Amino acid sequence: MRIGELAQRAGTTTRALRFYESQGLLSARRAANGYREYGEDDFRLVREIQTLQAVGFSLDDTRPFVECLRAGHETGDSCADSIEVYERKLAEVEACLDRLQAVRDDLRAKLTEALDREPGPVPGHHVLRGVPMTTTTGAVLAVTDETFEAEVLRHDGPVLVDFWAQWCPPCHMIAPVLAEIAAERAGDLTIRKINSDENPRTARDLQVMSLPTLVLFRDGERVAQWVGARPKARLLAELDAALNA
């Protein structure tokens, strides 16, 4: 089958398939007329990549599974390297769950304290002509295809953009980490989020293939990119390294 037929069967684009090829995850055969040709084995590889990416695996994470299938195994997780990736991703998920549990406990404590306190002025609000206005310093605000250029590319200073989707569990796991960093680094680092399902143009232009993907911009230029949820300490170290490079 040709690349267009493979893309249609897999529910993806020819551009994505060519990107897989450039990363060594897919290898086309050339027909005598020069066209790329693919077989059922290639379709299995693409579906394996898509299935893993749907649960937050990066393209590099899928590599052992692809190699396992290429080696002739019935499933992509029949090899030791694939099992190792499973174990690592599970450890990342459990670490994220621990952080979420801590956030939930903290919020419960704050709620209890607030309910027991006498009513008073609401912190973080200012009044302008009688209308309450919440401050947004350090908040992770959403951008769209229409506002991306103005709020990210034209923004002075570094901006970290979180590409996410509602269906993506790792996206929800990293959200509280980004909120904490946004508050701690307010004034030095701006963090924005963009829903890739609702704003596909920006994700397509930047070739975002997996979620969550974090892209760091400085003065309109992309300087670094990371795929997948990660612990706060690791993300801070990666940010500092990219910003100080």
Task: Describe this structure in a few short sentences.
The chain has 245 residues and is an alpha/beta fold.
Task: For the structure shown, list the relevant keywords.
245 residues, alpha/beta, five-stranded mixed sheet, two-stranded antiparallel sheet, 9 helices, globular
Description:
The chain is α/β, with parallel strands linked by helices and 245 residues long. Helices cover 49% and strands 16% of the residues. A five-stranded mixed beta sheet has the order 5-7-6-8-9, covered by helices on one side. A two-stranded antiparallel ribbon has the order 1-2. It has a two-stranded antiparallel sheet with strand order 3-4. Helix 3 runs antiparallel to helix 4 and helix 5 crosses helix 7. The longest helix has 37 residues, at 80-116. It is globular. The chain starts with a helix and ends with a helix.
Topology:
Layout: H1 3-10, H2 14-22, E1 29-30, E2 36-37, H3 40-53, H4 59-70, H5 80-116, E3 125-128, E4 131-134, E5 141-142, H6 148-153, E6 158-164, H7 169-184, E7 190-195, H8 200-205, E8 213-218, E9 221-227, H9 232-243
Parallel strand pairs: 5-7, 6-7
Antiparallel strand pairs: 1-2, 3-4, 6-8, 8-9
Helix pairs in contact: 3-4, 5-7
- Quote the average pLDDT: 85
Tally of alpha and pi helices: 9
By secondary-structure content and strand pairing, the structural class works out as: alpha/beta
Number of strands: 9
Note the gap between the termini.
45 Å
Low-confidence stretches: 124-137
